[in-house]
């Protein structure tokens, strides 16, 4: 009896302590989320620095355009396969361990790239890309640290990190490579990834999930310890509304994804831009993304339902398709870019928020990993499909495809009653 009383007293003290520390816990969660934003911004900056100089590095090693396409496809396939594995790893070992794995993989990636003195070594340097998922790692931490009502706004602010990555990475990478050589941005990326790893070790707590969710995670992972399981993917797709929203996520952005993959060629052949002008255009996109996701997405998410915003993004995408079909100059494209960035940012944020709410908290990492695989999938199949569309039908074909696909999806969203329920632990 005395033992039971002692346990009861201890439990009451713990509950009281937890209640007293609630404001401090809220402040700590906000701090951890800000650290996740910093890590994501730095990760994207170093990645865009490397992407900017990679064509020149590959050319200096004797790799032709076809070979460079194979190099990009290799990286896309590795990211495609690794996205879900990374998400499952985060569910089983925690968001902190997953983010450290991503940052450490980035360090190995940049190290191998800096040592690439031949084409085989350059291809070998892509292998760590299978675990390089800094943004999904940050999304996992934000998902664990926020309530469902806060999630869309918090995830939307990651778009600021993306904008910072595009602008800073492209600008700094160009300056460093011009003044000090092609490999210098890679050395900077190596040092930056090591710093990111240290930040994650020091500032991210070992447990980011609430205590009840942590118990559920342990129970779930004990039943299925495999990091890659088709059965687990199918199980997640069976939750109410998941399959429908995921299909919209994939197909709504597919045509514009094909266009963006071919953009480097379109900017030269169709718009007649020089390399410097293309860089300015990418910076313009980065600024737009920062403004839209930093100022617009979060506010709309707090005033409108997620289904309303999903329909709005698909409808705007359809209008963007019509504009792309009719555009003739780069100035037309600059105007179209405003609704394009809005629809793209809104679709990505809202679908990620809906899908992570629709599955148990123990599976949010796997769900984010599946979502993160959409872009690598487009990057893998895009060069072939996009090349055929551009060669056979011209730039307007991307616009007409975008218009038809998104009009069909908009009608589907209006008529169907997709169950959007929040999964409780």
CATH architect. name of the largest domain: Up-down Bundle
CATH class of the largest domain: Mainly Alpha
Strand percentage lies at under 5%
- Rounded mean pLDDT score: 84
**What is the CATH superfamily label of the largest domain?**
MFS general substrate transporter like domains
Low-confidence segments, given as residue ranges, are: 1-24, 215-223
CATH topology of the largest domain: Growth Hormone, Chain: A
Pfam families: MFS_1
Function: May act as a transporter of organic cations based on a proton efflux antiport mechanism. May play a role in the transport of chloroquine and quinidine-related compounds in kidney. Plays a role in the regulation of lipid metabolism.
Main location: membrane
Keywords: Cell membrane, Membrane, Transmembrane, Transmembrane helix
